[in-house]
Write a structure and sequence with these properties.
single chain, about 500 residues, alpha/beta, Rossmann fold, UDP-N-acetylmuramoyl-L-alanine:D-glutamate ligase, eleven-stranded mixed β-sheet, seven-stranded parallel β-sheet, about 40% helix, about 15% strand, elongated
Length: about 500
């Protein structure tokens, strides 16, 4: 599913109007019908409804919804803010239709606003400003937003919470943004919905199909997409009847240190559960017994050092290399990692301590083997690119790093972003907060490593690996609940996830 910036959404509306063809007011009517259906499925006619409408098309949507809900027997009060005496044509049309309805208590605010009483029983429909907003709210509209936010009412926003920009909110005024409980977005999610700091404004969000032109959607380019199961399924390579382990690659995992053998076990088990033909784990001698006992399917190669990775190993016979889980940051490990990367020709998955070490060696970071993937969480990314004010800035800096270092990046979190060197960003919808637990990232490293070793491109491995990792986490959450979920549960559910997308 494509995610468009607000400028492109305007063009898609215009394309639909021109090519369907459909009148602008009829497209608004279509959107209002979808909104009304979604709202009336959640709230019954006993719920008093207060609609706040702005002067643009978002306000027009809200007025049309008010009319349709009144026709269905809801008690509706409308406040239309027309402080400049200028409404959009479609907003004007819907104003006239609402004015004719005796069932709607209608107020047009041109100067003084006397706020209504809002109780916990009320549903507020926010239609003040939509996706066309380009600067923070101020003055009277900011005051209205503050009043709505301070009320005990449930707040529903149409398309986007008023005051929230669809992309960048770095310099926005948080107090002047509607804090919606629910947001019904029209046709597409907004990029801002995928950033952690905007959750308090967006609340629960859902997408309503208003049948914008599919041809227009396909023709319009965007750098942002949401992964879907159909796409992941199409990327999976079927196994041939006479396949053998040599067909599915030999992966090398360099992981573990004294006290951190568990990280190497988790990454190794995840790798083996993701279809790799052979796996060799290079680890310090102190982890030998743990690995040999807990992962009999893996080959164990002992480092000469007792407690940490200190001696680079030959990577010529491996199709992919994973480095980082539980690696530690000793001086010996730092030197060994830099030397290892200098001579490695196979694509590398870098995670955890490996990323932290590379933060001090930017030259190595920009000379990684072709097809390499970095898997940082936000703090690890900031060590690489510097402090970021918010998720939008973090995403932009990650895109710049992917471009300059010519690597793919999996920026982990809710809606993990897979970023290509060409600037494309794919957001992952699978996963849940139960996966916010130690070892979850190690599991992801193992899954992605297995895919790279099997010959998937870096982009394919990052997309499939991230989606499957989240999907396995969702299956684990259903079994164990969010609080009780641990990283091993994700591994246990990998076969179920793989079966869903490959069979």
């Amino acid at each position: 599913m494509k995610i468009f910036p607000s400028s492109s959404i305007k063009r898609l509306d215009a394309y639909t109007i021109e090519n369907e063809p459909i009148a602008s007011i009829d497209l608004m009517e279509r959107a209002a019908k979808a909104l009304t259906k979604a709202i009336t499925q959640r709230w019954d006619t006993e719920t008093p409804v207060t609609v706040f409408a702005g002067p643009g098309n978002n306000g027009g949507d809200a007025l049309a919804v008010a009319r349709m809900m009144a026709e269905k027997g809801y008690e509706v009060e409308v406040f239309l803010f027309n402080t400049k005496g200028e409404l959009s044509p479609d907003c004007q049309t819907n104003k006239e239709l609402v004015e004719m309805m005796e069932e709607v208590k209608f107020h047009e605010i041109t100067t003084q606003f006397v706020p209504p009483t809002l109780t916990s029983r009320h549903l507020v429909i926010d239609g003040l400003f939509g996706s066309g907003l380009n600067k923070p709210l101020s003055g009277g509209f900011a005051a209205v937003v503050k009043y709505i936010n301070s009320s005990p009412a449930t707040i529903l926003s149409i398309d986007v919470p008023s005051g929230l920009m669809c992309e960048e909110n770095t310099f926005n005024v948080k107090a002047h943004i509607i804090r919606a409980d629910v947001t019904f977005s029209l046709q597409f999610p907004k990029l801002a919905f995928l950033f952690a700091e905007n959750t308090e404004f967006v609340g629960e969000w859902d997408i309503l199909d208003i049948q914008l032109s599919q041809e227009g959607i396909e023709e319009t380019e965007t750098n942002y997409e949401m992964l879907e199961v159909e796409e992941i399924r199409s990327l999976i390579k079927p196994r041939k009847q006479f396949a053998h382990k040599g067909n599915f690659g030999h992966a090398l995992l360099i992981a573990g240190s004294k006290g951190m053998g568990g990280a190497s076990v988790l990454a190794a088990r995840a790798c083996l559960r993701s279809g790799v033909g052979l796996l060799t784990v290079h680890a310090p001698f102190c982890n030998n017994d743990i690995l040999q006992t807990s992962i009999p399917e893996a080959i164990v190669e002992n480092d000469a050092n007792e407690t940490c990775f200190a001696i680079p190993t030959d990577t010529d016979n491996y199709q992919a290399v994973g480095i980082g889980p539980g690696l530690g940051r000793s001086n010996e490990t730092e030197a060994a990692l830099l030397e290892q990367l200098e001579h490695c020709q196979s694509p590398v998955v870098l995670d955890a301590d490996a990323l932290t070490i590379l933060a001090n060696h930017h030259h190595t970071l920009t000379h990684l083997p072709k097809g390499s993937i970095l898997t940082p969480h936000p703090k690890e990314l900031e060590r690489l690119v510097g402090k970021c004010q918010d998720s939008y800035e973090r995403l932009m800096k990650a895109c710049e790093l992917a471009r300059t270092a010519k690597v793919h990046i999996i920026l982990k979190g809710a809606y993990s972003a897979i970023i290509t060197p060409e600037g494309k960003c794919y957001f992952n919808p699978t996963g849940n907060p139960g996966m916010a637990t130690g070892g979850s990232g190690d599991v992801l490293t193992g899954v992605v490593l297995a895919l790279l070793a099997q010959g998937y491109s870096a982009e394919e491995a990052a997309k499939i690996g991230t989606y499957i990792h989240g999907l396995a986490g969702d299956f684990a959450q259903k079994k164990q609940g969010m609080i009780g979920l641990i990283a091993s549960d994700i591994i246990s559910c990998l076969p179920t996830a793989w079966r869903l997308v490959s069979e």
